[in-house]
Design brief:
Blueprint (H helix, E strand, L loop, with lengths): L2 H14 L16 E6 L4 H9 L6 E6 L10 H11 L5 E7 L9 H10 L4 H9 L4 H5 L5 H13 L10 E6 L6 E6 L3 E2 L5
Parallel strand pairs: 1-2, 1-3, 3-4
Antiparallel strand pairs: 4-5, 5-6
Keywords: Metal-binding, Zinc
Protein name: Carbonic anhydrase
GO molecular function: carbonate dehydratase activity; zinc ion binding
């Protein structure tokens, strides 16, 4: 059986047994929190449990590396919407140790794209159009520095209110231990990465 049908079979049983009732909430984060986290599969259940969050407590935004690569991209838009429309009054950026985005090699990714059938001409066309694929696909060298960068991008965004605390954390993907890199209430930790 393919994955989609397996998911749909589970969904039918989930809905028929009314399991959804235990997750009912509204669209507003009960704890007033927006969280930008890495999409790492190890964090799907670990991150909310390690932070004491249940369904409805926070707006959870996930991407590769918990990175904000552009101040006008979809991550910043989501955070702005969370603050102005969805009553988030605090933001946490949560990256993690042993992240796949650490020291990622853009050339390696593009080589895989070619292996999977993307024509080299397509990559050349994108580069000729001024798209900096190497920078776009680049990860980070130091997770703490990456968190600091994302926090600063949020704090310095011209549409982000200055009274919103923005915290920077690193979670251990096995234990769930949270390390504070930036305390959004005004204190910065100086822990090594």
């Amino acid at each position: 059986m393919d994955r989609l049908n397996t998911l749909l079979d589970h969904n039918r049983a989930f809905v028929e047994s009314r399991e959804y009732e235990q997750y009912k909430t509204d669209k507003f984060p009960g704890k007033g929190l927006a969280v930008l986290a890495c999409m790492d599969a190890r964090l799907v259940e670990l991150l909310p449990k390690a932070m004491g969050l249940k369904n409805g407590d926070a707006k959870l935004i996930k991407n590769a590396g918990a990175l904000i690569t552009h101040p006008w991209g979809s991550v910043m838009r989501s955070l702005i919407v969370a603050v102005y429309e969805l009553r988030a009054d605090e933001i946490c950026v949560v990256a993690h140790r042993d992240c796949g985005m650490r020291a990622i090699d853009p050339k390696h990714i593009l080589d895989h794209a070619v292996e999977r059938g993307i024509p080299e001409e397509t990559i050349a066309t994108l580069r000729n159009a001024g798209i900096d694929l190497d920078n776009w696909l680049k990860g980070f060298d130091n997770v703490s520095d990456s968190v600091r960068h994302s926090v600063q991008t949020i704090r310095n965004h011209p549409l982000m209110p200055k009274d919103i605390p923005v915290h920077g954390l690193v979670i251990h993907p096995s234990t769930g231990r949270l390390e504070v890199i930036i305390n959004g209430y005004g204190e910065e930790s100086h822990t090594a990465a």
